[in-house]
Amino acid sequence: MYNIPKGTKDVLPNQSYKWQYIENTAREVARVFNLKEIRTPVFEYTELFRRGVGETTDVVGKEMYTFEDKGGRSLTLKPEGTAGAVRLFVENGLSSTPMPVKTFYITPAFRYERPQSGRLREFHQFGIEIFGSPNAETDAEVIFAASTFLNKLGVKAQLQINSIGCKTCRAEYNRALKEYFKPRLNEMCETCRTRFDTNPLRILDCKEEGCKKITAEAPDITDYLCPDCRAHFERVQSLLSALGVKFTVNPRIVRGLDYYTRTVFEFVSSSVGAQGAICGGGRYDGLISLLGGPQTPAVGFGAGIERLMLLMENTSSPFPQPPTADIYLAGMDDMSRNAAFILANKLRQGGINAEADLMGRSLKAQLKYADKTGAKYLAVIGEDELKSGSANIKKMSDGSAEAVNLNEIETYLKKEKKLW
Q1: Per-residue confidence (pLDDT) for residue 207, from 0 to 100
Q2: What does the pLDDT look like over 4-29, one tens digit per residue?
Q3: pLDDT at 273 (0 to 100)
């Protein structure tokens, strides 16, 4: 017997409709925000993530699934969606198309980390990336799209926002951080001691309890923002308030990836474990030029589908009922079972979810199966029904029945469907 690899998960027939519900909701949000779908490969050249995500990040340093192909090229399973989306934007010349370029994706991603509640080694993301606009309105639109998505799912989460500034104001802030952390380095984890020299801002993202106590008293980056970054951040807050989106400013949010500039944000919940971010993102104005494209501002987010599903299950958010057959056609003997099989497939061509016996069951067993699977209507076809050309269509919810011509069942069910 073969077992599933650690950190992965099967999607069973009684669960797949939940995935479809979340994905369909994501696509509907994308539609109303006029976002166009993109799809990128599951693996990319490793250097894309080293440069794009950042050498000092945990993702690149500890979590990537990297391998050599038969040609000796280093490839990596995508650990997140943004770097591949930016590569697509640059490689396909989308910078020459009308701006902004508004995109979304639903994609698997892979990180080698300790599996925990809602966090797997193979996971899935709904992401939005908007390229071309430097304005705060774009930040607010992306955050509002994320809020709309979560609200449509019935997910309750708290929005936290921050600005991590630009290269100019961040340089001054990094100096202030080094002054604060230097006398405390011996009390900090090895990773943070390394980050002290390479990227002190990333120390604020450490999850070690000892380091978290130290970073709690560190200087706030919002005190070091340059005038342009401060005005941009204030404009984002003003727009979110005008849109009725509640938020808190959390100066400790820096996100785990190096490409962010200015606005960063997270939607967090305590119902999915200690690391409660279910959706996060921000602005990354320097990433496209870093990866070989023209200087182009951009902003986006990613939402983890598994974590959303866990949160919805933990908080009784409203999943729809799983889909069931519109009608089950039961046959009384070999001839009528054959007729039921042919009729079911004709109904399917008309868009009706129809079922007929595939197991050679007795009539009694067919009726029991139809009831167990939740078919909305039932028709029993026998010798009399075949001669008369009509059958009683039983409504399973209340037991009422109506005689319907076999050739008119499709019309009858489509009329009934409008009442469901």
Answers
A1: 78
A2: 999 999 999 989 999 999 999 999 99
A3: 57
Q: Where in the chain is the domain with CATH 3.30.930.10?
A: 16-166+226-314
Q: Residue 64 is encoded by which pair of tokens?
A: 């990537």
- 52-99: pLDDT as tens digits: 887 767 788 789 999 999 999 999 999 999 999 999 999 999 999 999
Q: What is the 3-state secondary structure (H, E, C) of the chain?
A: CCCCCCCCCCCCCCCHHHHHHHHHHHHHHHHHCCCEECCCCCEEEHHHHHHHCCCCCHHHHHHCCEEECCCCCEEEECCCCHHHHHHHHHHCCHHHCCCCEEEEEEEEEECCCCCECCECCEEEEEEEEEECCCCHHHHHHHHHHHHHHHHHHCCCCEEEEEECCCHHHHHHHHHHHHHHHHHHHHHCCHHHHHHHHHCHHHHHHCCCHHHHHHHCCCCCHHHCCCHHHHHHHHHHHHHHHHCCCCCEECCCCCCCCCCCEEEEEEEECCECECCCEEEEEEECCCHHHHCCCCCCCEEEEEEEHHHHHHHHHHCCCCCCCCCCCCEEEEECCHHHHHHHHHHHHHHHHCCCCEEECCCCCCHHHHHHHHHHCCCCEEEEECHHHHHHCEEEEEECCCCCEEEEEHHHHHHHHHHHHCCC
Spans in the chain with pLDDT lower than 50: none
The amino acid present at 81, given as its one-letter code, is: G
Determine whether 105 is exposed, middle or buried from the number of CB atoms within 10 Å of its CB (0-12, 13-18, 19+): buried
For the chain, the straight-line distance linking the first and the last C-alpha, in angstroms and rounded, comes to 44
pLDDT for residue 256: 63
Distance, CA of 40 to CA of 114 (rounded, Å): 26
Q: How many CB atoms lie within 10 A of CB 324?
A: 14
Q: Check residue 208 and give its pLDDT.
A: 84
Beta carbons of 314 and 271 less than 8 angstroms apart: yes
Nearest 5 degrees, angle CA 129-CA 20-CA 324? 165
Write phi, then psi, for 218 (nearest 5 degrees). Answer: -70, 160
Domain 327-417 has CATH 3.40.50.700: no
Per CATH, which fold does 16-166+226-314 belong to? BirA Bifunctional Protein; domain 2 (3.30.930)
